[in-house]
Amino acid sequence: MREKRDKPSTGKADYLAQFRAGRPHFFEQVRDSCPWCGSPDIGFRIRLSDMNQLKPGTFEMHECSACGHLFQNPCLTETGLAFYYRDFYDGVGSQTWDSVFAYNRKGYRARVRMLDGLALPASWLDVGGGHGHFCHEAKKILPDTHFSGLDQSEEIQRAHERGWIDTAYDRPFQAFADEHQEKFDVVSMAHYLEHTLSPKDEIAAAEKVLAKDGMLLIELPNPESWYARFYGKFWFGWLAPQHVHLMPWRNVCRLLEDRGFEVLRVELGTASSAVDNMAAVTTALSHYLPPPAHWPWIQRPIRLTDRILRRAAMVLAAPVTALAWLADLVLHQIVSRGDGGNTYRILAVRR
C-alpha cells in the first residue's frame, strides 16, 4: 500500500517536527482480539524497528493462536503509515527501490504464468503497482492486454509516462472500486495486502472491480516461512513498520471461498525468492552500522568516522554476504519443493 503524501521534504527540522506532532496519532488502540478471525487467543510474537531507513519507533507483531494471523499491535493509523512511507518508494528512496524492483523480472514473469492455460485477459489492473515494473514485464508476455496500474505514490504516473502501463490511477483502491465495478478481467495484488489496514476490505474491493469469471492474483509474504523464526527480527519479510498484516495462505484461500471465489492455483515453495540469507545479512548490517546518507529523520550528524566505519564494515562483510548468496541458491532448491518459502501466490476466479 502506498500512502498519499505531501511532496517529500529534505529538511531535518521538518521531519522531526512532523514526528513529534504526529506521534500521538500514529497508532490505533491495542487490540485484544485477532483482526482476522476475532479470537481473543492472541499473544506477542516479536518486537521490530525500521531496519531499512532507520526511522524512529518500535513495533510489535502479535500472533493469533487460533488462525495463525500475524498483525501489528498496536497498529499504525493512516497518519502513522504516511509518515513511514514518506520518502521510501518515492522522494529520497525512489532510486533505491526502483533498482530493487527492476531486479525481480523472474518473479514478475512467474505471476503472469499463473494464468497459463486459462483465457487471455483483455484488461488487467495491478493494485499497488508502484514503479510499474510488473506491468512493464507482463506487457512483453501479453502484448494485447490493457494494463492499468493503481497506486497512491506519484511513481505510478511516472510509470505511465515511461509507457510501462497503459492507464494510471493514483487514488485509494476502495474508493476506486465503487466507481469501476466489473471493469477488469484480472486484478493482481502483489505485496499489497500486507501493507493495508484492512486486507478483507481490499479483497472485497477487488471483487467489485472484477468482471464475472474474472481472476484475482494475490502474492504475499509467507509468515509460516521457517526463515522468519530462524532469523528473528532480521527476516526481510517483516519489513516493519509497513507490513501490518501477515496472513497464512490457508486463511486467504478460506476467505476467498467464503466470498464466492474458486481457488484455481496455489504456489508455495515455487513462489519463493532465493534471498533470505543474503537479505538477513544486509538487514543486520543496516541495523548496526551508521546510516549510508544524511537522511533528514536521522537526529545525530553522520561524521567522517561513521562513513569510514561503514565502508570498512561493508568490505569486511563482503565474503559473508557472498556466502549467504550462495547459500540462498543452494537452499532454494530445497525450499522451492516445500511450503516453507518466503512467498506464496494464489489465483482465484470470481464466480
Structural topology:
Blueprint lengths: L11 H11 L19 E8 L8 E7 L5 E3 L5 H8 L8 H9 L2 H9 L9 E5 L5 H9 L4 E5 L4 H8 L4 E3 L3 H7 L4 E7 L8 H11 E12 L4 H5 L14 E2 L2 H10 L2 E7 L8 H13 L15 H32 L7 E8 L1
Parallel strand pairs: 4-5, 4-7, 5-6, 7-8
Antiparallel strand pairs: 1-2, 2-3, 3-9, 8-11, 10-11
Helix pairs in contact: 4-5, 7-8, 11-12
Report what the structure shows.
The protein is α/β, with parallel strands linked by helices and 351 residues long. The chain contains 12 helices and 11 strands. The strands form 2 sheets. It has a 7-stranded mixed sheet with strand order 6-5-4-7-8-11-10, with helices on both faces. A 4-stranded antiparallel sheet has the order 1-2-3-9, with no helix packed on it. β2 (58-64) and β3 (70-72) form a beta hairpin. α11 runs antiparallel to α12. Residues 1-9 have low confidence and may be disordered.
Order of adjacent strands in the largest pleated sheet: 6-5-4-7-8-11-10
**What structural class do you assign from the helix and strand content?**
alpha/beta
- The value of Rg in angstroms is 20 Å
Outline:
globular
Strand content: 15-25%
Mean pLDDT figure: 91
- Give the helices and strands as they follow along the chain: HEEEHHHEHEHEHEHEHEHEHHE
> How many helices does DSSP assign?
12
**End-to-end gap:** 26 Å
Report the sheet with the most strands, covering strand number, pairing sense and barrel closure: 7 strands, mixed
Poorly predicted runs: 1-9
Number of β-strand runs: 11
Share of helix among residues? 25-40%
